[in-house]
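Hi, here's the filled form for the chain we discussed.

Project: internal
Contact: R.S.
Residues: 430
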Amino acid sequence: MIKKLILTSILVVLIAGSKVACSKASVHGDKKDETVAAGRPEAADQSMEPASKGRGRNLRGMQKEPPGLGLGRALKNSVLLELSPEERKAIDVKTVIVGRRPMRNQLRAMGKVLAPQTKKAIVSYAFPARISDIHANIGDWVESGQKLVTLQSEEVGKARADFFKAQADFELAKRNLEREKNLFDRGVGAQKNVLTTEAEFKIAEAGLNAAEKKLHVLGFTEDQVEEMNKSHQVHPVISLYAPIGGKVIASNAVRGAMVDQATEVLIIMDPTLLWVEAEIYERDIAKIKIGQDVEVSVPAYPEEVFPGKISFIGDILNEGSRTITVRTEIRNREFKLKPGMFSDMTVFLNHPDAVLALPEAAVLDDRDRKIVFISAAEGYRLQAVSLGIKEGGYWQILEGLTEGDEVVTAGNYQLKSKYYEEVLRSSHIH
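And the returned structure, exactly as it came back:
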């Protein structure tokens, strides 16, 4: 009986152990099956399928952070933008080969366009008068000596009359003196009469000189006085003439209006030669020399430069800004520059050196950096670059390119757009 009980207990234990072992084996088998399933070749192939499969272009080697965007990265590691033949034709890409060109060190300063004092004139009249006729208006080009305005003035009328009277007195005194001298020479005249008429002649001569001087004060020229002597017309009319050749840029001339010494009747400026003045910081004064080449640009014409040379360096330092004034004279081509315009002055400090350079059309802004697209065998690579000076439409390349690289100069905006379309699409897929 006891033996049967012991055998039964052993049998129960064996059966229970068998069930536990089977259960563990089942669990381990399931895990092994899961591991094999996760490592199936077909699953791996599916996960590595190119994101751009079936597209006409793609970014080869796309990662979460696209390589080739950092300055100085090797070009072979940067991302390649591939285009279909149709896309290449539509964009019409143009390229240049990176090479060297002469460029100079530069100093830039903000400036302002000014009219030289010698090229500007205010036409006014020092005595009360009324405008009777106007011969030039704002915008008219006038020559030196050209009639601008006709005035009527009581002072002029009186001065004309005084001149003609003084001239008549002078002629009378001259004849009297000649007669008395002739009589005295023939022994029939008294010396006293000669002396008297001689004194009267000098008085008349002084009166004529004073009357003529008064006419000059009123604005008459020598030629006009000569004309008056011929015409003998007594009228209160005088004309104002252009003191310089140039363009009428301002006018207060109104027919019938009164003018006086405070009235700026017309302002004439010769805009063919202008000044551009800029302020140079104290630390840069030693770099500036008379005769250095200068280029000036203005916001109104950002694609144009106006050449000149340093013609003046100031002698007084502005204590507030710690700057000194420098000036260049600019030949005003097509009269595009206007006094009062703000400008950007670039002073070239040395002789040209051959540096690695690229047309500015090739360089694009990309957030806080500058980029270009390099033409490769099968597409285009984006490359960040570091720039130096700019001169004559070219940027100096400090880093990012090497001599002989082929860089896109036209169509690069479209390439940039397509590039980031692919970056965005690929980042969504991954």
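Let me know if anything looks off before we file it.
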